[in-house]
């Protein structure tokens, strides 16, 4: 190949990468600042070894992780990138990373899909066994978002407000 052609090819490839960068992390701007519950709150008040979730339901004391937790963000990114949580498609993610990250899309449907994906990641948080993680009552803001599509879901009346 002629050196000028090679240079043109490399330049066009670099330009295309700049125009369409590969997304590798979630856009935190589309994630609620709080899930409505603070991890560790109300330890042992309802059930020994548990903490308090929405509507005074017992939850594991590590639940929920902070919305900006590197562990949560990493697991959410992996699930959105892979399209499912485990190596088999038992827990399929209903939205792609690109669509999840599109902050210009504030539609009810997209917000519901975002909430569903975040809840699925929380409910399977240890990524070793399906359903082992944080129950939905540990993230009532996501429950409101999943039901209504409103990303500003106020869950303060549900109990442990975080």
UniProtKB/TrEMBL annotation:
Record's keyword annotation contains Signal: yes
Domain of life: Eukaryota
Signal peptide: 1-16
UniProt entry keywords in alphabetical sequence: Signal
Protein name: Uncharacterized protein
């Amino acid at each position: 190949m002629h050196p000028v052609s090679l240079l043109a090819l490399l330049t066009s490839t670099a330009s295309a990468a700049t125009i369409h960068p590969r997304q590798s992390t979630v856009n935190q701007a589309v994630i609620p600042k709080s899930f409505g519950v603070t991890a560790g709150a109300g330890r042992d008040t309802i059930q020994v070894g548990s903490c308090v979730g929405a509507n005074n339901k017992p939850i594991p004391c590590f639940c929920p992780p902070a919305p900006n937790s590197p562990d949560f963000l990493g697991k959410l990114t992996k699930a959105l990138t892979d399209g499912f949580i485990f190596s088999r498609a038992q827990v399929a993610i209903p939205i792609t990373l690109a669509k999840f990250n599109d902050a210009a899309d504030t539609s009810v449907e997209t917000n519901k899909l975002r909430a569903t994906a975040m809840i699925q990641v929380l409910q399977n948080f240890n990524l070793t066994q399906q359903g082992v993680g944080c129950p939905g009552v540990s993230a009532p803001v996501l429950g409101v978002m999943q039901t209504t599509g409103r990303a500003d879901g106020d869950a303060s009346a549900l109990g442990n407000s975080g």
